[in-house]
């Protein structure tokens, strides 16, 4: 028997999970406390001065949030993690911890709309320039690198384009130039892929999606794989910390400077909900993926569906790569194209169980029309780059019985 | 030898390097601690090779901005 569990099904339940040492409680303790009291002025001073470790204020760190960070760290086989109020908070904090005015980010052009907006609109106002490149073209990243590049950012599966970049190839480019490579692994989760294994330095999740799984809490997390040498000349602001604490420099800077100052902390109760989600992550992903494969097959054969996009389909341009990268599982999200926007609206309105809302990765099947919702602020060109047309519908397949999901889709397609 | 650790004078075995001192003093979260000897912050790579001597002043510091969690 291996001392450490080898399978994700077991690891989500046992990695970094122990009963509470004081009470024996087996579910995570929710430490719903703003601040932490010390017996003496001297002992609190010792923590503030850095002579003793300890909790001070939950904007900076909280014991429940720490438990969640440790669990994701273990699943990603990483060095450490920092949980944030949302996935967008995690991406914002990462970008601000690495890049300043005059610096550059390279990102795939099929990014999630929220991330695209952060890079193209918000960060650009502060002099951080993002160069968007063809997400699946590793060479395009190489060509975009300059002396000012501080971050290469990609999604392991684009949302909602569902393109799959060759992460190992992009990692190679990043390493060659001493640039940090961050992978947003929200759609794949650690169950399909641990980005550290293909050369990622940082992993980011919107934990509001599959990790939580139940659609009842917003959160995000930044994972430092421990694979980047923070003495790289591109990150001079981290060098003093690197001298003192080595490769924990980035996580320490992130917590003690960026996240402390931005205040984008995860609440202890949300950390608790995330941990309850982690317990079933592996088995949910198995079901999500199996269901999505069946739904994709059904839709591909339906006369009213013009096109289905799912990385597991043989006609998907990245199918072979996706198979290799994700071990034969392709996630829960797929898109379909109907005749026009009116057909899309009729289809969505006719669904009996699938919920029309702006989320993915919940246990229930979800549907949305991207062009009129989360991609509506984008220009037509940007929308085309992320693969969103007016006749596109996105589905996030839940863990209901596949026959019931398909029958709901079938009855609505019959009505359009 | 006598060392002054975080302002307190302590008796310790001779010839300790930093990792042994961290263990001896049961320093919390040793991966996260920074060590200052006679006013100079040591780089992590100097820990193994820095042998303490009688009279050294040692400070342990945590750079977490007031909050554990790493």
Q: Biggest interface, which chains? A: A-B, 31 and 24 residues
Main sheet specs of chain B: 5 strands, mixed
Mean pLDDT of chain A: 95
First and last CA, distance of chain B: 33 Å
How many DSSP helices of chain B? 1
Low-pLDDT windows of residues of chain B: none
Describe the 3D structure.
The complex is a heterodimer of chains A (416) and B (70). Chain A contains 16 helices and twelve strands. The model of chain A has no long low-confidence stretch (mean pLDDT 95). The termini of chain A are far apart. In chain A, the strands form two sheets. Chain A has a seven-stranded mixed sheet, sandwiched between helices. Chain A is 39% helix and 13% strand. In chain A, α3 (63-75) runs parallel beside α11 and α14 (341-350) packs across α16. In chain A, β2, α5 and β3 form a beta-alpha-beta unit. Chain A folds into two domains: 8-30 and 61-278, Type I PLP-dependent aspartate aminotransferase-like (Major domain) (Aspartate Aminotransferase, domain 2); 282-415, Aspartate Aminotransferase, domain 1 (Alpha-Beta Complex), CATH 3.90.1150. Chain A is globular and about 75 Å long. By secondary structure, chain A is α/β, with parallel strands linked by helices. Chain B is mostly beta strands and 70 residues long. Chain B has one domain: Beta-grasp domain (Ubiquitin-like (UB roll)), CATH 3.10.20. In chain B, 10% of the residues lie in helices and 30% in strands. Chain B has a five-stranded mixed sheet, with no helix packed on it. In chain B, a hairpin with a 2-residue loop joins β3 (33-37) and β4. The radius of gyration of chain B is 12 Å and the shape is globular. At the A-B interface, α3, α9 and α10 of A face β5 of B.
In a nutshell, what does this entry contain?
The complex is a heterodimer of chains A (416) and B (70). With 416 residues, chain A is α/β, with parallel strands linked by helices.
């Amino acid at each position: 028997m291996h001392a450490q569990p080898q399978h994700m099904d077991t690891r989500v339940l046992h990695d970094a999970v122990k009963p509470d040492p004081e009470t024996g409680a087996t579910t995570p303790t929710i430490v719903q406390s703003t601040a932490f009291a010390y017996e003496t002025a001297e002992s609190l001073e010792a923590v503030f001065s850095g002579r003793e470790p300890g909790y001070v204020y939950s904007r900076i760190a909280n014991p429940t949030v720490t438990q969640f960070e440790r669990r994701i760290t273990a699943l990603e086989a990483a060095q450490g993690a920092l949980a944030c109020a949302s996935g967008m908070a995690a991406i914002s904090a990462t970008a601000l911890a690495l890049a300043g005015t005059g610096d550059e980010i390279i990102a795939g052009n099929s990014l999630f709309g929220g991330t695209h907006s952060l890079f193209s609109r918000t960060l650009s106002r502060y002099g951080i320039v993002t160069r968007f490149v063809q997400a699946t073209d590793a060479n395009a990243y190489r060509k975009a690198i300059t002396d000012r590049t501080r971050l290469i950012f990609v999604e392991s599966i684009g949302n909602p384009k569902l393109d799959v970049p060759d992460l190992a190839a992009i990692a190679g480019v990043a390493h060659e130039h001493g640039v940090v490579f961050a992978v947003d692994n929200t759609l794949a989760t650690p169950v399909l892929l641990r980005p550290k294994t293909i050369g990622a330095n940082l992993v980011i999740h919107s934990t509001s999606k599959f990790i939580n799984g139940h659609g009842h809490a917003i959160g995000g997390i930044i994972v430092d794989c421990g694979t980047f040498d923070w003495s790289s000349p591109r990150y001079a602001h981290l060098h003093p910390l690197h001298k003192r604490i080595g490769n924990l420099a980035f996580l320490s800077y992130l917590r003690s400077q960026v996240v402390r100052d931005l205040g984008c902390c995860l609440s202890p109760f949300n950390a608790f909900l995330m941990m309850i989600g982690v317990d079933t992550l592996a088995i949910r992903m198995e079901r999500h993926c199996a269901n999505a494969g069946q739904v994709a097959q059904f839709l591909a054969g339906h006369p009213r569906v013009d096109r289905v996009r799912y990385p597991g389909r043989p006609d998907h341009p990245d199918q072979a790569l996706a198979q290799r990268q994700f071990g034969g599982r392709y996630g829960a999200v797929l898109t379909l194209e109907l005749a026009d926007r009116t057909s899309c609206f009729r289809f969505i309105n006719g669904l009996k169980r699938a919920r029309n809302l702006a989320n993915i990765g919940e246990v229930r099947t979800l549907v949305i029309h991207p062009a009129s919702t989360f991609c509506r602020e984008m220009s037509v060109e940007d929308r085309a780059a992320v693969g969103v047309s007016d006749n596109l519908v996105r589905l996030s397949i839940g863990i209901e019985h596949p026959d019931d999901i398909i029958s709901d889709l079938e009855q609505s397609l019959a009505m359009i | 030898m006598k060392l002054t650790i975080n302002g307190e004078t302590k008796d310790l075995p001779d010839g300790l390097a930093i990792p042994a001192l961290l263990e001896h003093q049961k320093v919390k979260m040793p991966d996260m601690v920074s060590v200052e000897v006679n006013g100079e912050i040591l780089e992590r790579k100097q820990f193994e090779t820095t042998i303490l001597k009688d009279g050294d002043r040692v400070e342990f510091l945590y750079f977490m901005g007031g909050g554990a969690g790493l």
